[in-house]
């Protein structure tokens, strides 16, 4: 108990508790000290966990802030693209509405022809008119009015397809170059047949072939269909367009619902849009190749027909020359022989009639050729003007191609940026899941910390009670210390008395030693006397009986002296032990007095330090409770964001002209949770 007591006393002295206390209070103080040390260790662990929680919360806030900034950038980019799409859609809607208003307000045939030329569809209509062989202008206007809306819708859809097919720009340029090269041959081949049917449609047909080769060439492949199949074809096309428009409306509604349901799936939506673009781009190339083959077949057909007409003309000319020459020779031969009465054969009559028909046809063709030459001169002038217009339009088309290519590159960059943003969103989602798990762990740690905090508060209260008891015990120990001081003084007096007694005992011992020496001398003298007596006894047996009484008395005296000597030796040893114990008691009391003073000082210092640490721990606990409440609020806010923030509202009106995107990650955009 002594080393433990001294170690505890030294620890308390270091802490400032220098008051004296008894040995009975040492176990209580040791238990209090161990509890206090464990409490301090738990407080240090709690502070470390709290700092770790605050640091993780700070890192989580930084990640959330970066996530919000990136989402804000993505939102701005999407809004910008949405504005561009809305502007393009409004332009197309304005063009379509203007065309419809113009169609409703004006029914002049010439204006309709001009509009159809501007829509690059007039070549198809004139080809159909020549196939129909319509001479009534009212029927043509009625047909144009009936089919104009479907043509406009088809034109808009084809324009959209061409805009979406920007990725096939090099192939498209080669395709248009081939079409432009073939236009001249087709115009030269088709001009005689068109002039034979109706000469005034040659100019519009040439313009249509020049300005709308892809749209006009697809329908030229039909070789002179009758009116009933063509009407059925147009009705089937109208129904197909209605079905396509209905399917597009249904697709638009479905996409709206899907976008509302999957607001956060931007990547999937972009992939679907790319799929639609790819599908539209793939359907454009086969049509173009089919139109090219149809145009080549039509060209070959007109070439064959033109060669046949040339052969017929050559045959008619040769046959006309042959009968005339043969007739002159026969006349010359008949005159001398007088064969005037010879009749022509039936074959010659047929040839002559056929020759007359061919002659009339040749005359008509000659007049037609003259008209065609005049119209050719007019067409050359128109061709030059149209060539200039074509050059201007080609420059504009190049500018539009550059703008389209730039827009395509921008779309690709935007798609890649959206892909990166989607990957970032996925990574941020995984980070949010990790943060949620970490927050749950922190909640568990916070709950355990709260439990440990409550337990520590109880322990602190218990320690306060124990400290109160220790203070009371300290007072009792101070009183005991005063008693011990008084006892020490008494002991000092007793020690002085013991010293005096020891001196007296030493004097007595010295006197006893002297007496013992004297007794020994006397004993030796008695021995010598006894020897003398024995000798005397031997000499005189008779004196023995008389000297027995004297001998017995001497023996009794010797026994008394030896007993007295043993008692003196016992008293001396007892006095020596008492002196040693007195010296040890005095030294122990002096040491106890010094250690008690030091322990009292250390106990006072330790009490002051404990009180300061307890106040600091109370403040740390209050700060921990406040930070825990903040963490709980932040956790609740993050849970709300996880439930509703990522499920932002994203609505797409790609077909009606409006596209709005909204992603909410917090009630206030850009705010950071409290630290």
From TrEMBL:
It comes from the Eukaryota. Residues 313-350 are annotated as: Disordered. GO terms for cellular component: centriole. It is found in: Cytoplasm, Cytoskeleton, Microtubule organizing center, Centrosome, Centriole. Keywords: Coiled coil, Cytoplasm, Cytoskeleton. Residues 231-312, 355-389, 425-627 form a coiled coil. The keyword Glycoprotein does not apply. Belongs to the CEP135/TSGA10 family. This is Uncharacterized protein. It comes from Rhipicephalus microplus.
């Amino acid at each position: 108990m002594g080393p433990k007591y001294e170690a505890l006393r030294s620890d308390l002295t270091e802490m400032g508790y220098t008051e004296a206390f008894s040995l009975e209070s040492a176990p209580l103080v040791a238990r209090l000290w161990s509890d206090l040390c464990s409490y301090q260790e738990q407080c240090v662990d709690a502070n470390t966990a709290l700092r770790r929680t605050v640091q993780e919360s700070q890192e989580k806030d930084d990640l959330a802030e970066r996530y919000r900034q990136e989402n804000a950038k993505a939102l701005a980019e999407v809004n910008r693209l949405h504005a561009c799409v809305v502007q393009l859609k409004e332009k197309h809607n304005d063009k379509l509405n203007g065309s419809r208003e113009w169609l409703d307000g004006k029914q002049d045939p010439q204006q309709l022809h001009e509009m159809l030329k501007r829509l690059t569809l007039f070549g198809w209509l004139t080809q159909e008119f020549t196939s129909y062989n319509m001479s009534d202008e009212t029927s043509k206007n009625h047909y144009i009015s009936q089919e104009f809306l479907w043509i406009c819708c088809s034109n808009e859809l084809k324009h959209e397809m061409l805009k979406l097919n920007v990725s096939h720009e090099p192939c498209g340029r080669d395709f248009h170059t081939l079409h432009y090269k073939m236009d001249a041959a087709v115009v030269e081949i088709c001009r005689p047949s068109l002039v034979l049917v109706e000469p005034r449609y040659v100019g519009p047909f040439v313009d249509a072939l020049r300005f709308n080769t892809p749209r006009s060439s697809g329908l030229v492949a039909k070789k002179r269909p009758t009116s009933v199949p063509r009407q059925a074809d147009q009705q089937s096309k109208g129904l197909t367009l209605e079905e396509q428009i209905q399917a597009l409306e249904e697709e638009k509604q479905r996409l709206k619902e899907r976008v509302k349901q999957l607001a956060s799936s931007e990547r999937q939506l972009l992939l679907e849009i790319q799929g639609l673009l790819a599908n539209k781009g793939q359907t454009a190339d086969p049509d173009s190749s089919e139109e090219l083959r149809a145009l080549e077949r039509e060209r070959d057909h007109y070439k064959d027909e033109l060669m046949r007409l040339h052969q017929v003309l050559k045959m008619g000319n040769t046959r006309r020359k042959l009968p005339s020459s043969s007739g002159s020779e026969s006349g010359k031969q008949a005159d001398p022989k007088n064969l005037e009465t010879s009749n022509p054969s039936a074959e010659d009559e047929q040839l002559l009639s056929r020759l007359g028909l061919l002659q009339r046809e040749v005359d008509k063709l000659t007049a037609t050729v003259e008209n065609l030459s005049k119209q050719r001169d007019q067409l050359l002038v128109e061709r030059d003007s149209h060539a200039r217009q074509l050059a201007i339009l080609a420059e504009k088309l190049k500018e539009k191609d550059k703008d389209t290519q730039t827009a395509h590159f921008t779309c690709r960059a935007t798609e890649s940026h959206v892909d990166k943003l989607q990957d970032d969103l996925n990574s941020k989602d995984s980070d949010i899941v990790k943060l949620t798990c970490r927050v749950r762990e922190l909640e568990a740690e916070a709950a355990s910390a709260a439990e440990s905090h409550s337990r520590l508060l109880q322990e602190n209260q218990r320690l306060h009670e124990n400290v109160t008891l220790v203070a009371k015990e300290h007072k009792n120990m101070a009183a005991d210390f005063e008693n011990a001081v008084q006892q020490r003084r008494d002991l000092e007096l007793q020690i002085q008395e013991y010293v005096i007694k020891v001196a007296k005992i030493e004097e007595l011992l010295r006197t006893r030693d002297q007496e013992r020496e004297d007794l020994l001398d006397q004993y030796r003298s008695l021995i010598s006397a006894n020897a003398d007596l024995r000798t005397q006894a031997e000499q005189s047996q008779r004196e023995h009986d008389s000297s027995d009484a004297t001998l017995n008395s001497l023996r009794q005296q010797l026994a008394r002296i030896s007993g007295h000597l043993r008692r003196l030796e016992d008293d001396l040893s007892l006095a020596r032990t008492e002196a040693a114990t007195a010296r040890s008691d005095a030294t122990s009391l002096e040491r106890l007095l010094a250690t008690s003073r030091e322990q009292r000082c250390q106990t006072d210092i330790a009490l002051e330090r404990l009180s300061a640490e307890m106040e600091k721990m109370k403040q740390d606990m209050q700060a921990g409770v406040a930070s825990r409440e903040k963490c709980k609020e932040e956790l609740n806010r993050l849970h709300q964001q996880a439930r509703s923030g990522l499920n932002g509202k994203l609505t797409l009106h790609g077909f009606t002209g409006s596209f709005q995107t909204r992603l909410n990650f917090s009630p206030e955009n850009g705010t950071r949770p409290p630290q």
